[in-house]
Amino acid sequence: MIATDPYKAKQFNLSGLNGISDRTMEMHFKLYEGYVTETNKLSEKIAAFLADGKVDQEEMPLYSELKRRLGFEFNGMILHEYYFENLKNGGGSDPDRSSSFYQAAEASFGNNSNWKADFVGICMMQGHGCAL
What we know:
- This protein is an all-alpha fold.
- Helices cover about 60% and strands about 0% of the residues.
- The protein has four helices and no strands.
- Helix 1 (about 20-50) packs antiparallel against helix 2 and helix 3 (about 100-110) crosses helix 4.
- The longest helix is centred in the first third of the chain and has 29 residues, at about 20-50.
- It is elongated, with a radius of gyration of 19 Å.
- It starts with about 20 loop residues before the first helix and ends in a 9-residue tail after the last helix.
């Protein structure tokens, strides 16, 4: 994946959320902006490798590492966008019991409380902090 234009960090108006502080959101926005910046830098480096239309044997180790790193950075960027897009001012902490999400959580985990405990546990894992 090579972007023809650099990615730009999207702006999200998410101050004053229920259950998550503005300070925490600011940290997430900075992390997200870092993912956008690194995605652009790596895309530029990969484009330089491909400028001659091939990746030769000498280039392969560095090219491979750049592609692996791009996957990490790009995923971090996109996952933060999904995260931000699913937050809303005035939102609650639990889904509506009639929602398809709530029904899926109950079907998979026995009840919404078990799903939430698992989700929060994953979010608190050191060095990870991201759950889907």
